[in-house]
């Protein structure tokens, strides 16, 4: 195997800087272990020569590339952004560069991206949630690459996770809402297929309904994609039905903000005419008026812990125990007792 | 150079699928050019063997990795998310995978990420804005890698760009505001150093002030980082000064939403007591109450065109002409004529 175009080598850099190739490697891989004056000399040579650490060479030298890959379902609406930012900061402190791909909530795209990141030599991967084709899990095992899951805690899953209990935390919110007297619950869920967070949140609402002894017909569910516009459309469908709900529980804050927007357009007062809840506690949740009742997800803490766990896996080549973080109900102005129109009608 | 761990090769896949290695390459690089039945057979062998296309081998075979890198300043607040999503969709239609890094608006981190993406074999790069150390530009030229800039149109810059005129579009908004009678203008800008968008938007406001024959002291500028909280703090500083402005023009919508939030806390009515403007027209801009006057950036169109341009550069190994898109003033409820307190006082 030869290098396709003539490019400066590790040797060239070592000669220019007057150090050994091992020292150049250390400067590139673990700069914090090299004294400043040497590192500066080496990095000057690297820049002047336009040297790019070669993937193959680095794998052979250090067996790592100091690159971590993350695949998130979407970059829009900041659902994953805050957690990912903290994840990146944690990685960077240890000398890793984060490369992110977004899969548009599509498992086929996620698989392409997993393969691309592995092919690009990622030392480890962060994935969101546990729902995944067994074939791609087998592929990851065969590649022997450290993989951590975030946003969904499941100690029984194949992959270790740093996350929270989507089901229990949504149940806690539904318990509260039902405890306030709501008996007709509209749900705007994300597409549950291939999305354990969406599936478990919906299951949490059904748990609360069962626990309260309500019939299954207390709940009307619409599944749609995560977006403000789709949330608005689903809300309109729920509210123009024969028996509109007194509370609309949304699978995340983005859907809920869409619901609130549509409520305004329909002339419905929130929470007097209808209560609305979200999930995630993104910044938007406290900016809308009234502020949105939601489930607070500890995004930054999750990102920091995920970085620590994945670095541990990469550095020591072993798995880590899954970690559960709390996600708590956050009551704000968008929820009230159900209005006069509650209970059995028509 | 040998492969560090024993792994299935292209040959193994070709044998298992009963096709030539060239056909396997085509299935991996340009699957749309392979008939379905063959592609399915090959991909089945790829999966069963756990084959990962090797970076070096692919570079040698096709001289490309079908990976494009993008480095954006931040993943938070959805400023770049919509444009990037459209960029990714455009790339994907042509068989490219997008890997994204976010630099926290720091040039040193951006340089690390540029080097990491080049080292991982990216076929091309998308960068935001033109302000960049000449050394890293020289490095990119030496690597002979296609690089396109977005979010900032500058036909005179070294790198081709698909973007808009930050200066003129902000000037148009400032012209409008001054035309309404505002004479004391507070500006909450992002840090201008290393950020041409921030620098040019501020210059656009000064252009409008000069054109209107107002003195330089008509403008009070606070530079801060892009965040809702920092926007709120800067707004408070402006409004509690001896001569508070009648309009606060913000470098982007995120800062402006922070200003609106703080206005509410201070008991100031927007726009009666003070007008507020943003820039970008992110979704948030029309969700706040009153809706935010801003400059509409054609995020999706910019992302689509950037994908087309960069693919052209990668496919044909040549540069492309820069493309300018319109960014238009979008008047909404957050701006009104200045109140009774306008003009020369104290």
UniProtKB/TrEMBL annotation, chains A, B:
One of its GO terms (molecular function) is DNA binding. This is LacI family DNA-binding transcriptional regulator. Keywords: DNA-binding, Transcription, Transcription regulation. InterPro entries: HTH_LacI (IPR000843), LacI/GalR-like_sensor (IPR046335), Lambda_DNA-bd_dom_sf (IPR010982), Peripla_BP_I (IPR028082). Residues 8-62 form the HTH lacI-type domain. The keyword Transcription regulation applies. Pfam families: LacI (PF00356), Peripla_BP_3 (PF13377). The keyword Phosphoprotein does not apply.
